Amino acid sequence: MNEVHSAQSSAPSLSDAQIQQFMRDGFVRIDAAFPRELAVQGRSILWRDTGCDEADLKTWTKPVIWLGMYGQEPFAQAANTPVLHKAFDQLVGPACWRPRMDLGTFPIRFPSPDDPGDTGWHIDASFPPETGDQNDFLNWRINVTSKGRALLMLFLFSDVGQDDAPTRIRAGSHLHVARMLAPAGESGLSLRELATNGFAYTAARQEVLATGEAGTVYLCHPFLVHAAQPHRGTRPRFLAQPPLLPGQPFLLDRADGAYSPVEQAIRIALQAA
């Protein structure tokens, strides 16, 4: 454990500018957040499980194949680099997040003219409803203190250019969502309720593409509106999108005023309402 803390303390920190960007835009990009060789090892496992032949394009018959959960060594190591642990401390707060030993599900996107059927704008819900169908993802809920989710994370396991189905991000959209959630209090809103107009209230926000080399990680505010898109490139895109789970609840009223950047962004949104 001491070796982990030592490595973490020597890892580069997010700059003040990066933290300000996270609060303003809802995300920060970290290049080389995990070693490229781990991405190579991870892709070999994922390729096997797709049932497709990497060398035979005729076997790439679907626009997207969903795989998960993945906790083998390359994935566990990628999720727990000193660089990422330090960034988690800075954005969420020391001892306020839980380490991941897996990277959850992987939507593997293949070059295809077909509609993948999952490209709508959304945010990721974080806790189940008290009543209703818990198997219906649109019934899952989000509240203003982001119960059950500290961050949304995008782990790039392949090089992702503009044509390679990069995740679309609406910069600053987390501020609008926070204001929508505030009146609902602790019980929050379902994803269905939040998405009644397709998140049109964030449509004017700048769209950013989550591109980068394998080993890049995007750390995103849990309220960030984002969307998938069809793959128009030539090589499949490998990406994990797990949540970072909280170690303790976020608070928007602290006596000591020691707010994490995730909390600060929510407070800024509500103060501007």
User: Which geometry do the CA atoms define?
Assistant: globular
Outline the biggest β-sheet.
6 strands, antiparallel
Give me the secondary-structure category.
Answer: alpha+beta
State the assembly state of the protein chains: single chain
**In angstroms, what separates the terminal alpha carbons?**
44 Å
Would you identify the regions where 5 or more consecutive residues have pLDDT less than 50? none
DSSP E strands, number: 13
Helix segment tally = 8
Give the overall pLDDT as a whole number. Answer: 95
- The succession of helices and strands, N to C, reads HHEHEHHEEEEEHEHEEEEEH
Query: What percentage of the residues does DSSP assign to strands (E)?
Result: 15-25%
Radius of gyration: 18 Å
Classify the helix fraction into a percent range. 25-40%
Word description of this protein:
It contains eight helices and 13 strands. By secondary structure, it is an alpha+beta fold. Strands 1, 3, 6, 10, 12 and 13 form a six-stranded antiparallel β-sheet that branches. The longest helix is centred in the N-terminal third of the chain and has 15 residues, at 36-50. It is globular and about 60 Å long. The model has no long low-confidence stretch (mean pLDDT 95).
